[in-house]
Amino acid sequence: MRDLRILSWNVNGLRAVLRKGFIEWLKSDNPDIICIQETKISDRQVPRELSRIRGYYIYFSSSQGKKGYSGVGLFSKREPISIENGIGIEKFDKEGRIQVARFEDFLLFNVYFPNGKASMERLRYKLEFYDCFLNYVKKLLEKNEYIIICGDVNTAHKEIDLARPKENEKVSGFLPEERAWIDRLIESGFLDTFRVFNRSPGQYTWWDMKTKARERNVGWRIDYFFISKNMLDRLKTAFILKEVQGSDHCPIGIELT
After folding, report:
1. Rounded distance, CA 172 to CA 100, Å?
2. Roughly what angle, to the nearest 10 degrees, separates helices 120-142 and 176-187?
3. Catalytic positions
4. Cβ–Cβ < 8 Å for 73, 59
5. What residues contact residue 190 under an 8 Å CB cut-off, 6+ apart?
6. Nearest-5° angle of CA 23, CA 243, CA 148?
7. Cβ of 174: how many Cβ atoms within 10 Å?
C-alpha cells in the first residue's frame, strides 16, 4: 500500500486559480486528497472545467447568502464513507467553512477559519468559532477517533511563524488570545505536523500580494495540518510547497504511511 499524500491550499478564488493552471498542477502533483479553502463560489457556480479532472470525488461547501465569499472544497481519490458540511452550529455553518469527511481510517476536517482583521465583531466571531470547533474535536478525541485537521487557521502560532512578529503583536492573526487557542488545541492532543519535522524560521504559507512580500519572503505561516497524537506513527513527512504559485497562499501537505 503506497503512502497517502494529502494537501491543503487556500486558493483565494477557485475560478481565479483555475485560470492560473490549477488543473495542470493537480495532475502533476497527483495527491490522493486535496482540501481547498476560500473557493468564493456558490453551489450553482461550480466551474465546468472541473469535469476535466478524472479520478477524484469532488465536494463543495459554500457560503449561504453571501456571494463570492468563503467556501471550501475537497477532491479525493478515495470515496469518503460520509461527508458533512459544518459542525451543527448555524452561525458558523452558513458561511461554508467546514467539511468533515469520514474515511475508513481517519476523520478529515477541511476548515477555513475566520479572519478577525475586519472589525472587533469579526474578531469575536473568530474566537467563538475557535472555541466551538475545539470543543467539537475534543469530544471526538474522547472517543479515540483518528483525526486530521487542515486548512487556513488565519493565525501564526509562534514568533518563528511570521517574518515580523514585533510589528504584528496587536494585529489579528498574531494576537495573544488567537495564539493561545493553538496552544490549547495542541494541549488537547494534536500535533502541528510541520514542526514535527522542521524547526527552521522563514517557513511561510501566506504573503501580502500588494507589497510583493513573497519575493522577499516576508510572510506568515497560517496554514496548518494538525493530527491527533494517535496518528503520529503514520506520519511520514509534512511540507510546504512554497514554489507553487496562483494564490497569496501556497499549498501545504502531509504524507501518511
Report:
1. 26
2. 10
3. 152
4. yes
5. 137, 147, 149, 226, 227, 228, 229
6. 70
7. 23
- The cell numbers describing 1, all together, are 500500500
Per the DSSP assignment, residues forming a β-bridge with 235 are 256
Among residues 106, 151, 144, 148, which one has the least CA distance to residue 129? 151
Residue found by looking up cell 489579528 in the block = 172
Task: Tell me the mean pLDDT per 10 residues along the chain, length 257.
Answer: 92 97 96 98 86 92 89 97 97 97 98 96 98 98 98 98 97 98 98 98 97 96 98 98 98 98
| CB of 92 closer than 8 Å to CB of 112 | no
CATH 3.40.47.10 fits 4-256, yes or no: no
Contact 155, 185 (CB under 8 A): no
pTM of the model: 0.97
pLDDT at 1: 59
Gap between the Cα atoms of 134 and 128, Å rounded: 10
Amino acid 9: pLDDT:
99
Give the SS3 label for residue 16: helix
The confidence score (pLDDT) of residue 45 equals 84
**Residues contacting residue 116 through CB under 8 Å, at least 6 positions apart:** 122, 123, 125, 126, 127, 154, 172, 173, 175, 178
